[in-house]
Amino acid sequence: MNYNIKPELMKTSAKGFAICKAIYDDNQELIDLIYISSNSRFKEILDISNISTEKLSFKDSLSDLLDEIKKQKPNSLFTYLKNDIIYNIDYMIDSDIEHQVILNIKELITDDHYDIYAKKAFNTLVQDLPMPMFITDKDIIVDCNVACHKLFGFDSKEEFLAEKPSNLSTPLQGPYGHTSVEYFGYLMEGVEDKGLISCEWVYVKKDGSLLVTETVYSIREHNGNFIIYAFLRDLTEEKKALDALSKEQEKIINELSTPITQLAKGILFLPLVGHLSVSRANSILHIALQRISETQAKILIVDVAGVNEMDSICASSLIKLSKAVRLMGATLILSSLSPKAAESIINLDFDIYDFNASNNLESAIHTSFNMLNMNLKF
């Protein structure tokens, strides 16, 4: 049988493969093996990665392994102990090529070693994981992967582990402004019930900048202690993009909800509908002053018939708008004021002459035409 192994398989396999030349004495007893080629895993297992393998003699460099092979029959399987790890070795004779030996070495996981290997495999997986994660025990960070300490801007794992989770979090968390301690306690109740929980958590990086994340918390018991695993997804840039989009959408909505039209030369008309928030009021102020400047208008009629409620924010915003319009050399006329709206405005500290008022839109239009000495024709 020919045991020649494809080169690409030798390179990628988790097993160790090697091809050797057997040296026999006059009695056809094996006295040495000469290394010909192998994959990297074979060199790694036998600690020969850093030495020259050209015509390497097992007798000189791997005598303990050679002694074990001498005890075996050709084409047999045996165990071999190296660095406290047990390996299975297939010792095969290639019948098609004289004196050629194939060695196939694979780590043997026994029940005694399983726990050690499982932890080693888990730690390797965690360290290589592209998703940032760290492990905490109370207010101590006990472990993290490379992606995590890099995300926080720390140069090394050790530097990151010296920090406390509480020092890496903003004082307030969650949608209702709880303290970090309160919100974390609330989250842990959810973890105990569901096994894991996802939330938005804001951290502080080494340079002081904010790090907005989606964090998945999981809790596990270990030797009587509860260990918390935190897996992070960086949302910082995504949040910035969403905030920018939200502001742009708000700007468009405010512009669409501020339809300032020109009734006649020198007269602008603005109907207000719905609730007047602070941000919307600021947008209306900006757009109104811009339109007055563009059209050289002398009068701005603001009709408030569609306003849901004339609260203090709405009333003070109208007064602010009126004063700004006067600074532009124009006059603001409020129309369709209800008795309740009039009470809201009069309760604020302002000069009653800051603007004119009409009880309906028709009256406001007549007033504006009269103020400009214009004839109103229907």
Describe the protein.
With 378 residues, the chain is of the alpha+beta class. The protein has helices at residues 7-12, 40-45, 58-61, 63-70, 111-128, 146-151, 157-161, 180-194, 236-256, 278-295, 312-327, 339-346, 361-371; strands spanning 16-24, 30-38, 76-82, 85-94, 100-107, 133-137, 140-144, 172-173, 178-179, 196-204, 210-222, 225-234, 261-264, 267-274, 299-307, 331-335, 356-358. Helices cover 38% and strands 31% of the residues. A five-stranded antiparallel sheet has the order 2-1-5-4-3. Residues 1-6 have low confidence and may be disordered.
Q: Features of this protein?
A:
single chain; 378 residues; alpha+beta; Beta-Lactamase; Transcription Regulator spoIIAA; 3 domains; five-stranded antiparallel β-sheet; 13 helices; 31% strand; rod-shaped
What's the topology here?
Blueprint: H1 7-12, E1 16-24, E2 30-38, H2 40-45, H3 58-61, H4 63-70, E3 76-82, E4 85-94, E5 100-107, H5 111-128, E6 133-137, E7 140-144, H6 146-151, H7 157-161, E8 172-173, E9 178-179, H8 180-194, E10 196-204, E11 210-222, E12 225-234, H9 236-256, E13 261-264, E14 267-274, H10 278-295, E15 299-307, H11 312-327, E16 331-335, H12 339-346, E17 356-358, H13 361-371
Parallel strand pairs: 14-15, 15-16, 16-17
Antiparallel strand pairs: 1-2, 1-5, 3-4, 4-5, 6-7, 6-12, 8-9, 10-11, 11-12, 13-14
Helix pairs in contact: 10-11
